[in-house]
Specification:
Strand order of the largest sheet: 3-4-5-6-8-7
Number of helices: 4
Number of strands: 18
Largest sheet: 6 strands, mixed
CATH class of the largest domain: Alpha Beta
CATH architecture of the largest domain: 3-Layer(aba) Sandwich
CATH topology of the largest domain: Rossmann fold
Radius of gyration: 22 Å
Helix content: 10-25%
Strand content: 25-35%
Length: about 325
């Protein structure tokens, strides 16, 4: 039954509070006062200092509104690390935001940039330039390894998007007994969108190789390089390895691509990675044909450019 209690002429379930840092917890206190009947609270990097370790009634909590979404962008310094909402979004793992200074030489911007990124991500979602799709996952590492790209539970919609339109997934998220943690990566500037692909590689080296794969995709107008720093992967003979990559531009028709293998070792001979099969699948546009390539040899620190072909359909 729709809640009809009103505050100042407005029904409680129509009220939407947005709080930044300390303001996120204050929004929670307001929600507590009205027994969680407010329609929605969005917490933008809720403050961590003085609130970490506090019980739910002393901070923002999932019960403070009918839907609580939280963006955590600075969990290692000024922000709150643990989930606080119905769904909690962790851009770039929740810390070290792209485009922010990495050293003290960045001055005041170094201290506040990561913390403020949550605000700019929310504002970017209002522009509707692109959907920043996020992926519910147990950890950022599992997300980076491509283990959480299945969005079947949310069909016919995609996985949840971050920002203003996150409440479209409310009815699907509310039944979960525990908060949903969702991860995604961004570029370093507005509108922060990345178009994600899963790169799946099967190698046939007899000995195990460990290293990183850098990816470029190209259309007739030029190329775009992955802006996501991949985790080191372990390549074992005939075992599939999935790597999540993200590009700042959506290329609908890929005519060429390149792979560069590196171990980042400073000394020793250059390694070779013998690729039996490579697949590239668009995550944002899963109906697009998967692209394949077979029998590649990647010499360490050497870019290999090639033309991918459509993967054969199953059953053919």
């Amino acid at each position: 039954m729709r809640n009809t209690k009103k505050v100042g002429g407005a029904s409680l379930d129509s009220l939407y509070l947005i709080g930044v840092s300390l303001g996120a917890h204050i929004a929670g206190f307001v929600g507590q006062k009205y027994k969680g009947k407010l329609g929605r609270i969005t917490g933008l990097d809720p403050a961590g200092p003085s609130f970490t370790g506090e019980p739910p009634d002393h901070r923002l909590d999932p019960t403070d509104a009918q839907f609580v979404d939280v963006i955590h962008s600075d969990i290692d310094v000024l922000g709150f690390k643990k989930p606080l909402g119905t769904i909690d979004f962790y851009p770039n793992g929740g810390m070290y935001q792209p485009g922010c200074p990495k050293t003290f030489f960045g001055g005041l911007h170094y201290f506040k940039c990561d913390h403020q990124r949550s605000v700019f991500l929310f504002l970017a979602s209002l522009k509707n330039w692109c959907d920043m799709i996020t992926y519910p996952c147990d950890s950022y590492l599992d997300y980076k390894r491509g283990k959480c790209m299945d969005c079947d539970a949310f069909q016919p919609m995609s996985c949840p998007v971050v920002g203003y339109h996150a409440d479209r997934w409310k009815k699907l998220l509310i039944p979960y007994s525990s908060p949903t943690k969702a991860y995604f990566d961004t570029s370093g500037k507005d509108p922060f969108c990345l178009y994600n692909y899963i790169l799946e590689i099967i190698t046939w080296n007899k000995s195990t190789r460990r290293g990183f794969i850098e990816v470029k995709i190209m259309d007739n107008a030029g190329n775009t390089e992955s802006q996501m720093s991949s985790e080191a992967s372990t390549f074992q003979q005939y075992k599939s390895v999935k790597i999540l990559t993200g590009f700042p531009r959506d290329i609908e028709k890929i005519v060429k691509m390149s792979l560069t293998f590196t171990t980042k070792a400073l000394i020793g001979p250059r390694s070779k990675l013998k690729v039996l099969q490579m697949k590239l699948k668009s995550v944002n546009n899963p109906t697009r044909p998967q692209l394949c390539r077979y029998d590649l040899i990647l010499v360490e620190n050497t870019e290999v450019i090639f033309k991918p072909i459509p993967c054969p359909k199953k059953g053919t």
